[in-house]
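Researcher: I'd like a structural prediction for the single chain below. Treat it as a standalone chain; there are no partners to consider.
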Amino acid sequence: MQRISFIMTLFLVMSCANDKTSNKLFSIVNPKKSGIDFVNEVEDGSDFNVLNYRNYYNGGGVAIGDLNQDGFADIYFTANMGPNKLYLNQGDWSFIEVSKKAKVEGAQGWSTGVAFADINGDGRLDIYVCNSGEVKGDNKINELYINQGVDKEGVPIFSEQAQKWNLDNQGYSTHASFFDYDLDGDLDCYILNNSFKKPEKIDILKTNRNVIDIEGGDKLLRNDGAVFTDVTQEAGIFSSNNGFGLGISVSDTNNDGYPDMYISNDFWERDYYYINQKNGTFKEVLNSSLPTCSMSSMGSDIADLNNDGAIDIFTTDMLAADNYRLKAMTVFDPYRLENYKFRQGYHYQIMQNSLQINNGEGRFSEAANLAGVSATDWSWGALIFDMDNDGWKDIFVSNGIYRDIMFQDFATFINDKEAIKKIIMEKKSFDWRDFVTYIPSNPQANFAFINQKKATLPKFENSSISLGLDQPSFSNGSAYGDLDNDGDLDLVVNNVNMTAFVYRNNSNNSFLKVKLKGKTKNPFAIGTKIIAENNGLIQSAQNYTARGFQSSVESGFILGFEKDSILDKLTIIWPDKSQKILTDIALNQTLTVEQDKSPTVVNQQKIKVNALFKEKSASLKGNKKHQENIYNDFDHEILLHKMLSTEGPLVLKGDLNNDGNDDFLLGGSAGDTDRYFVGNGKGWNSSKKMEIVFEKDKSFETTSGAIVDLNGDGYQDIVLGGGGNEYQKGRDHFSLRVYVNDKKGGVIKTSSLLPKIYGNFSCILAADYDQDGDMDLFIGASYVPGNYGLVPKSFLLQNIGEGQFIDSTPPELSRAGMITSGVWNDLNQDGYPELMLVGEWMSLITFLNEGGQLKANRKTPNSTGWWTKLAAKDLDQDGDLDLIAGNWGENSPFNATPDEPLEMYVKDFDQNGKTEFIINWYPPQEHVAYPFGTKNEITSQVTMLKKTNITYDAFAQKTYEMIFTKEQRSDASFFKAEELRTGIFWNENGNWRFQTLPDEAQLSPVYSIVAEDFNGDQIIDLWLGGNFWSLKPQVGRLNSSKGLTLFGSKDNTFKVVDKKVSGIEIEGEVRGAVYLRQNDVEGIVIGINNSDLKFYEFQK
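Model: Treating it as a single chain, here is the predicted structure.
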């Protein structure tokens, strides 16, 4: 009764929707006017319900296309527990339901996906319906309805022929896609299935994706004219019970003319990304092509989102966008399990939507957080199309699940055997429905992201409210098509227990509608590409109809052009790679294009690019892999958002032998020996002599250092700082080590020059700050091992002659912050260098030097951040040094502004002798700060809170101020971060002005900065390296940077350089990089965590 009432309420709301939303881009068409009153009714039964069939609320699909060839697109809905429905478009937003007459209601138990395709090449669209469900007998068989043409009333009549065509699959089918994978002219079929096996029964110790599951695995079937032949195995397609397929997208992603496939898998299994090998087989390349993928991948779509001609990939997941649902409904893998799954071949799966930006050459960068599309709750369909006809594709996400089956309080309840037993005893029977009612039901608004027209990395703004697409619902399949032939794309959404949404698009921007007429066996020209060039803007699209979730969009193209009237150039590339080019085309018309019988085939010639750098790592003799020691920081500090013990290796430039060739030192982790590479004019050799000395100290984690003449003898010495987060090792492992140059190509360790100081040292900066003719040292510390949030002590060591140093640290410098990097820089050009420092939860701090005394500090306003690296260079050639500052970036769940900063409170809240910290953040779509940690994490770290935070529901509604009492919060140290972007601090007469670098610099944390003139224009260019892997699972894995080259310009902006031009493409976590010069060789040496050194030689 409650469900029926809810349906009626929504029906009444929709009945009034036209009047309320007519001024918005989309308006719901009144069901009374349209005649579309379809409801996918799903009701839990005593024996068949969501507790014993996991896909119970996955809902149905939608297909749009002209089935009776009257010029109007028709709509087909699949239903789970009732008949499927076909609505014929009569024009003027009037439809009639003809399912029974057309013989397409379906005879099976539980329909899911639907595809429109011309299976037999007769020019008429056929219907393929996927079936599933935990139902008895063989009524999971998929159905193929072959279009027989129309009757005298114009109703298309269909004949079910799945068995005849060998398409009568009996698995848990989700969807199917029809496309010509072998380019023989007809449409083949990929059937996407969901494993029969229960997810909890999957043995992750065994990666069984190569084991064929005859009944339940995915299927690839080749069209052999009158029948489809199963070629799954010979084509290289995974067809195991590991696969929980929920989405299939097809497109030519590498622009070789052959269609590729992306398969979204739910639960344990990773997604599959298949590259067509052009010989009837596919190669699965996800691990080597995508840095991460979604964990519970649902729907997907593929399209060019930034108008660069390369095809991008978007997949949906179930990450909540608000704090309550995030805390009450979401469970993240433990860090150990996430890492184990990766080692077992499941790749890195992140619980969030994934936006894979195509970098070319088969590589992608994941950028969903940066783009603003990572969190859309329990999401299904992902549709990429130009909603407003402005020439840039937007994203629609359908979401919502009829009951919140991940509600953690329900999980607690259902696992309480005594509570369950009590209910059964009271009812005197066992009925699943008695437990289902304990699961909440909360409709959610769908998301509609409008493209912000970024030509490199796309960014989006959720505009569902302003667009008129924000009705709370339980939406699943969705599809777009031009239902009223006005040149814009309308939208249809299939809902669970609600009337379907039919949205009219009210755009009045210019358009070009392109209808395709292909050759005999592929009349709708599936696989055709289109490229439109106009006023410098290039749009591209591909004609594949199976998109989103369980749905099929209208064939053909609609391109938007804002207010233009003429299109400069249109290129149509047919499936056989032949091309047709049209110019000076009038807009606001429907253009029908036929595939010529003998068009010209154009072979595209690749342009050879001379790269700036070329990898020559072989010139590093004695190169060994950096070995990170195993230590799980989260075992000791569960509230950490990242590991603190994986920040090596350190790379330092020096010249110990005074031969004029740059040498370098590579710092080792605990148990990994430091190494010194000596330049020989053409390359570098690892010094065996120094390795013997360093071997004795390999128990230290080298986190900082400087190569500098400490004792004034004209030869450089080495000072190294210990660090890491393994506090159990004792303070001796957090000390300084000094190696004095023996002037014979080696070093001698000494303990007589520097005072005994201890800390987790992050940077050692050398300068003659007191101008007495010798080098002094600043020793910066980043955090207290085992006690993140406490501010460590840093040191200023003054050289008093002959290499003897004393501690001269002024009080304000001693506890300056959690310092990560810094530089000396004479700001006022009085001969005395100032000290600039950055760090986590720190501003850019300037310590002014007054005649050799660091007496004051100046914090740059609104600059608190999670800074990682600082470098100095005169970028604008005005005679002073500017600062390049590496920061956390914008491609994680964390965002920060001065109005909504990240916050951290530090205190021994439970008075157990160890400090705890609480990080506050602003979740997407909210403007209230909440603790980032989950209930389990916070109450495990601060155990006294378990008594006052019993339910997830209550905890999910609490802010920091509600979790802790006023007394508990008193005296807590407070920190904030307002800026997470990497950028430039321009030196303007000793004051700093911050300017962000391009979005590509915000993809990952930046740990390495090289500033040189790469292109010979006398302007400084930049190379940035970074990434961070060892993060808490809810933060993700920041590894989308492949190294970034930026060309400087006279107007003080920086331009992103393509990887083909730069020649540098790095995989892994870059931690150190320096530019080296020798007689005949120069270039960048790059230190990568847990990997080999890389050297990229500059091509003079």
